[in-house]
Specification:
Layout: E1 2-6, H1 15-31, H2 38-48, H3 52-56, H4 63-66, H5 74-95, H6 97-118, H7 130-143, E2 148-155, E3 158-165, H8 166-181, H9 193-213, H10 217-223, E4 236-239, E5 249-252
Antiparallel strand pairs: 1-2, 2-3, 4-5
Keywords: Cell inner membrane, Cell membrane, Hydrolase, Membrane, Protease, Transmembrane, Transmembrane helix
InterPro entries: Peptidase_S54_rhomboid_dom, Rhomboid-like_sf
Protein name: Rhomboid family intramembrane serine protease
Length: about 250
């Protein structure tokens, strides 16, 4: 199941979210050619990625920021940017532009430090925006636990879009990170689970004062956990493309 959109429209232009999307994509394009040269790519990641053993030596603190703008492949980049696109605009609206940028980067730093705490002697470089974006997910869950998220379900030849509440989508995602992080192969599968966990928890903690200023539990009570504005409505349209067993095939737009 893959998230494709939420029903939580933002009332303001998410300039920082757009800038982060563009920056990550442009940086990836700038070194994409290095994927044909594994040694050169590894030098880049060792120099600008977060290497826990380097932090343990007392250097490389700048990589707690720089690692957030590097990605290990097209799918790594694509999924991170998809999550940022879906959830970032609402958090930016709550925080304001520059405070949201600070929140995002701080969550990324917290994610890197969490991964470092669990593997302080590792020489494997950590790259990716997923720790920072996990913080955005944590803040989103705190503010909009019952916002609806459209999930794309595909099982072989079965495809469907299913709306699911954010608490189940994001809470389930966090639970899977914890389960995988505690598993026996966590350090061998190339995923920084503890960075995801640390970023998510940091996002909840950093967003908590803002949530309390907005009313805290009263905010939940007023809106029953839904966004405080009308949800986006997506309508079904019909197409002339034939489908087996049907005269017409409905598509979501």
């Amino acid at each position: 199941m893959i998230p494709v959109r939420d029903h939580n429209p933002s009332g303001k232009r998410a300039y920082v979210t757009y800038a982060l999307l563009a920056t990550n994509i442009l940086i990836f394009i700038s070194y994409y050619g290095l994927f044909a040269n594994e040694a050169a790519l590894m030098r880049l990641f060792m120099g600008w990625g977060m290497v826990p053993a380097v932090l343990s030596s007392g250097t490389g603190y700048d990589t707690l920021l720089t690692h957030q703008f590097l990605h290990g492949g097209i799918m790594h980049l694509a999924f991170n940017m998809l999550f940022l696109w879906i959830y970032g605009d609402n958090m930016e609206e709550e925080w304001g532009h520059l405070p949201f940028l600070a929140f995002y980067l701080a969550c990324g730093v917290a994610a890197g430090l969490t991964q470092y705490m669990f593997e302080p002697n590792s020489f494997v470089p950590m790259v990716g925006a997923s720790g920072a974006i996990a913080g955005v997910l944590g803040g989103y869950l705190l503010f909009y636990p019952r916002a609806r998220i459209d999930m794309f379900l595909f099982l072989l030849i079965y495809f469907r879009i299913i709306p699911i509440p954010a608490w189940l989508v994001l809470g389930g995602w966090f639970g899977m990170q914890v389960f995988a992080g505690l598993g026996p192969t966590a350090s061998d599968d190339g995923v920084a689970y503890w960075a995801h966990i640390g970023g998510f928890v940091a996002g909840v903690i950093f967003a908590l004062p803002l949530w309390l200023r907005r009313g805290g539990r009263n905010l939940w009570a007023q809106n029953h956990g839904h966004p405080p504005h009308p949800e986006a409505q997506y309508t079904l349209i019909k197409t002339d493309i034939p489908a087996a067993g049907r005269r017409r095939n409905p598509w979501l737009r």
